Each structure stands twice: as structure tokens, then as C-alpha cells.
């Protein structure tokens, strides 16, 4: 016969914090006394300025508690993305024509603008399932599977986690392992790195589908400091191996004196790019190390949640992330939660805004702005309230802004100085959530 253990300080604080912050934790500290289903749904809109990327996603999470503290978690996500995204080409004071990612059409971009690919359209479906249960008196194990499919991308993954309680359950040490096998399946095939963008119909430099494997390891410790303070520290190691390029990103070949894109000789009788562009090339391995620290402080109904993450990798990218949330109850049935997040990173050692024509090509080069040097701030507020039924509604509105810069030693020629090369970004995020069930 199962006996109900009294809640420890760790369980009480962790459960209350997750509930108050609205984190939707998929691995609750303690199962409910009466087994049952709980559901968490969210509809999210993400929209970038200047008619760039828009994402509408619907996420559904179902959690089933069983006797003996066993937990089944199922999730489904559907994302629809549209809009335009920078392709990496250098802006120029004249029009530029590019072959589409599939290689079957051309498009011309206006003078003076950062070239965008406006054929961006995709729908992503994601599924995951996990099972958690005790293993002995002080251990908990969980294992899960995940899969997602986009028009040109397939992900399959598996994960495992083991945690053990110490110090009257006020200290928890955990070990996590995840493996992902992904396949890149662009229309027309993946391009050979650092080969020229060709005319319409010429797919001679395409390689077909490519794959990559990713292994993640996480070591963590969670400690109850006192009845009001819970802290957590994690170290994670991630290793990716295989095709790590973005098959849709290119780099401009530019005149070493002026820095302007070099014109391409047109192909007779065919639609062709106007200038010389090369498909990007990234290393085929990437190893990342991350340290993550978090503190949750309970103050008579209010909860302060602050975290910091440092990441470094062998692409020479170093990043810092500071995230702060403050949950403030309003009466007995609602709350407001301001949020601010600051992110900054250095650029990859192979990041190039362009390549000088006539010079030997490097082994790796990418003009993807996501590999550049930039700062980003997210700020906004979340509001939640409980209905008479006990179910919860919540709404979140946030603004995101990213401001990048290009180091002077990456500029080529006279005309790139003072030119707006890095595509700064503003975006709005709105989410509506609903929780119901036991």
C-alpha cells in the first residue's frame, strides 16, 4: 500500500515556484494524491519588423500522474513560419538578382537594402513523450523520445535523466543525456560549400540530403538554502557533428578596393544571379560548454526568479544571458509578472560579411548575422488569472530588439565603411495560454 510522505521544504518551494511563475514544468517534484490528467496549452505569435519572419505556433502539453509517483508527459507543437529573412549577401547601391534556394527561379532585390529571401514558408510539427518514475527511495529516472518534421528538415531524438536526493531531500544531483539525429532535406539538395550560386536549373553543385548528430550532457545540482530560497547550478556539454551549414545562406564576393559585389557574367539564355555569390561553409563539428545558475526567492507570495548563463564554443563564440522575472500576486486569483532578458555574444571566428575577390578562399566562411556580434534585449509582462473552475488563463506581451555590429577588420574596401551591413531586428511576441485539469 502506498503511503503519502510529507512534503519537504524542497518539494514545497519548488512546486510553489513552478506554479507561481507559470513555467509549465513537465517533471513535477511530487505526484498528486489523486492521479489524473493536467493540460497546458499556448498560442504564440512572433512577428519581426520590416515584414520579416512571422511565426504562429500552437503548443499542447498533457501530463498524467499515476500512483507511485509515475508521470507521463506528452506534447504536440505546430509552427507556421512565413516572411523574409536575410540571406547573407552584402547590401549594395544597385539592384541584385539571386537564384532561389531551390534553384528554379530568380528574384531581384532593390538597391541599398539588405537582401532578403521572401520565399520563407514552412510548417513544423513536433511531438515528444517522456516517462518519469522513482527508482528506489531517493532516485528518480526519466526517459523520452522526440520527433519534428519541417518541409526540409527532420529531427529524431531521445533523452534520459537520473536524479538523486540527498540531505533530507534538500539537495538534488542530476545527470541528463540527450541524442538527436537530424537530416537536412532542402529542395534541390544541399549546396557544396563555397561554390558559386548558379543560374536557374543548374544543380551541378548540389549534394543531396545531409545529416548531423548532436549529443548533449547535463550535470546539475539543486539546493534549498532556506524556506524561501532555492538555487540551481548546471553544466552542459553539447557536441554536434555532421552538416552544420545553413543551405540557404550565401557570402558575397566583393571588389577588394571598393568593397562592392563583383558582377557575374550572365549565362546566355538563362536567368542568372547578377553578382558573384558563394554558398557558406561552416566547420563540420561544434562543441559548446555552458554554465547556468538560477535562484528563486519566495517573498510572502511574490517570487523573484533570476538566472545567468555563460556559453563558449570552439567556433570562438562567447555569450552571456541574464534573465529576470518577478511574479507579483494581485488579489487571490491573479498575478502580474514583469520580465527582462539581456543577451550578448561575440562573433564566430569564420564570420565574414563578404570575401575579397581574387584572394584565396578560406576553409570556412559565413555571413549569417546570427553568427555575428550583437546584443539583444527582451522585455515585457505576463498576466495570469484563475477562473472560478480553478483553471488558469495567462497572456504574455514582450518586445525583442537586437543590435549588431561588424568589427572594422571584417570590412573590405572603401564603400563598406559607414554602410548598414548588420541587419538589426525588432520583434513583438504575444502568447495566450490556458491550463486545465487536475
Secondary structure elements and their pairing?
Layout: H1 9-21, E1 37-48, E2 54-65, E3 71-86, E4 96-99, E5 106-109, E6 116-135, E7 139-150, E8 153-166, E9 171-184, E10 210-226, E11 229-242, E12 250-254, E13 277-279, E14 285-299, E15 302-313, E16 318-330, E17 334-345, E18 355-356, E19 373-386, E20 392-405, E21 425-437
Parallel strand pairs: 12-18
Antiparallel strand pairs: 1-2, 1-21, 2-3, 3-6, 4-5, 6-7, 7-8, 8-9, 9-10, 10-11, 11-14, 12-13, 14-15, 15-16, 16-17, 17-19, 19-20, 20-21
Can you walk me through this structure?
The protein has one helix at 9-21; strands at residues 37-48, 54-65, 71-86, 96-99, 106-109, 116-135, 139-150, 153-166, 171-184, 210-226, 229-242, 250-254, 277-279, 285-299, 302-313, 318-330, 334-345, 355-356, 373-386, 392-405, 425-437. With 438 residues, the protein is mainly beta. The protein has a single domain (9-437), classed as Porin (Beta Barrel), CATH 2.40.160. The strands form 3 sheets. The chain has a 16-stranded antiparallel β-barrel. The two termini are 23 Å apart. Residues 1-33 have low confidence and may be disordered.
Tally of contiguous helical segments: 1
What is the arithmetic mean of pLDDT? 90
The structural domain count equals 1
Order of strands in the sheet with most strands: 1-2-3-6-7-8-9-10-11-14-15-16-17-19-20-21
Question: Alpha-carbon distance between the termini?
Answer: 23 Å
Q: How many DSSP-defined strands?
A: 21
Structural class: mainly beta
- Specify Rg, calculated over alpha carbons: 25 Å
Shape: elongated
**Residue share in β-strands:** over 45%
CATH-derived topology? Porin
How would you sum up the major sheet?
A: 16 strands, antiparallel, barrel
Q: Which CATH architecture would you pick?
A: Beta Barrel
